[in-house]
Amino acid sequence: MSPANAASPLSTPTAPVSTFTCADGANYAPQGKPNPVVKAGEFAIAAAFLDHGHINGQCNGLTEAGADLKWVFDPDAKKVADFLAMFQPKFPALKAARSYDEILNDPTVKLVASAAVPSERGPTGLRAMAAGKDYFADKPPFTTLAQLDDARHAVATTGRKYMVYYSERLHNESAMHATDLVRQGAIGRVLQVLGLGPHRESPGTRPAWFYDPVRYGGILCDIGSHQFEQFLTYAGATDATIMHAAVANHAHPTTPAFEDFGEASLLGNNGATNYIRVDWFTPPGLSIWGDGRTFILGEKGYIELRKYVDIGRDQTGNHVYLVDNKGEQHIETNGKVGFRFFGELILDCLNRTEKAMTQAHAFKAAELCLKAQATAWRLPA
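RESULT FIELD:
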């Protein structure tokens, strides 16, 4: 039996999973069938600072894995009301906190999830860890290398976790199945990873900070963080060198500091290479917010992921294409893999283990995107 056909999440599928699809990636929040790893009352969480819609995906994943949502806080009452309308039917005891401190002062809260403005995610996490909470940040987790250094120091001194919602792998069934295929040796040693992360801008719906690189970090720091995390995972690298990085503002003259295009290439410390392209040029005609794809080249075959759509043929996502010495396979993973990261994260927090993701890996992906952003050439418009 070839590695591609060996035991995998597809051979022993979890309960069916449905994926929430939308035209705007800011509100993309996958949903799965509950698969709790703890009993009710064993793992209380809070959501704080709801500046990005990813907070809904973060909380979906955690609560489906058994977490109890106890508190929510944001200075904007409308955001809190919308969040309560979404989650209070399942968690009637969920309350709006009067301040972030009210959450931090609750000894029963074990983890704080946050999707604050990117430049504020680092400081928000430092406060959570100082209060004895583990922290789960939306990506990008930082906008400066100084923030990353501060977080590394806080982890070392507090012993708390600073985890990151790299959703384009962790909350996508095709990407998680590819993780397993690579680890099983389905394509042999990985030589190169190509990551494409186009997104839809949806003009008129974005807050002012979205166009300010000081606050969102720049395109390679922001959506590029997904791609660097995937490269480290699929290639099995623990570090990388930035060989090339470039950004541009090709079509947004009214917001000249904004970056609508970015590219970078990396050399992993194990010899694998990586190229990424990220952009805000998804056309209105696409049925989903972005045609995210990943290509993984190995010595014995290759994998292509069509994560969110198979254009012109199938508007569902989670397609894995595998080619090896034995032939060609199209593997539909929707509803067959699940989102195990969240349950593993809860158990890691309770047991102080690192099964879901190591702290070193989470921080290395952040470091690479920050370094790529800092060294990027500015292309002419």
